[in-house]
Amino acid sequence: MTEKVKLTISPAVAKYVRPGTGADVRLEGCSAAADMTVADRLMLLFCLSKDAEVSVRTAALTCFAELPADVIRAYLDYPTPHPLILAALPLLCQNNPNTSPVAPLPFSTYDEEAGVDPADACQEIESDDENPVDESAEQFLSKYKLAQIMGIGEKIKTALSGDKEWRAILVKDANKLVSGGVIKNPRITEGEILTLIKSGIQNDEIMRLICANKEWIKNYKIRKALIENNRTPVQNAMKYLASMGEKDLSFFAKSKNIASVISSMAKRLLLNKKK
Known about the structure:
By secondary structure, the chain is mainly alpha-helical. Helices cover 55% and strands 5% of the residues.
């Protein structure tokens, strides 16, 4: 089951977005946001900008278009601004005259580097209907969806320290610094490495990093899987072949799924073992 990332909404924001709140109250929230703290102000407008009611959604988007640049900058300076809002800001503020080239904001950190459309970020919050809002509301985003809107720097950091689920997601990232970061994660297990090799991964950098790890190469199953993977450098595969047992050498000698040079060497090694 996919783990969810929690986005907590303060009571001040929950007042306008909790389940069952009327459209008139939600619309009022667009105006009330101006008197809230910076974090609550952007959180409320962000939620309302995805409202099902056109009038509410339009009002929230208008508020975003009128946000003072110093308010946006103040949010960007927060210790833990939420990545959903960071990714959505470029789109939500694109018609804001206060964020003109005269006073540029560092939005590219959150969307251009990630190579995603920040518009997607505005579609992902789902309410937790099983736990109606009391003093606060909680809304969630799957890790997979969150990965789509993370900046490269944040992905690399998560790849290097994230849990098994994060590793499974980010190892497939097109950016080699991100996917390679997963292999360097100290929490990754030999079981994960073996599964990765057997999956037929096409990332040469990942294969190089695996082959460079002396501890993993001590594992017989990993060496065997590397020989079977055509992305493994031939010189490495040949080296591992010498450590295979007779049964596996016989298999490689007959295999048509590996390079012919490896198959030929397997035959020679097998003959030498039988002498």
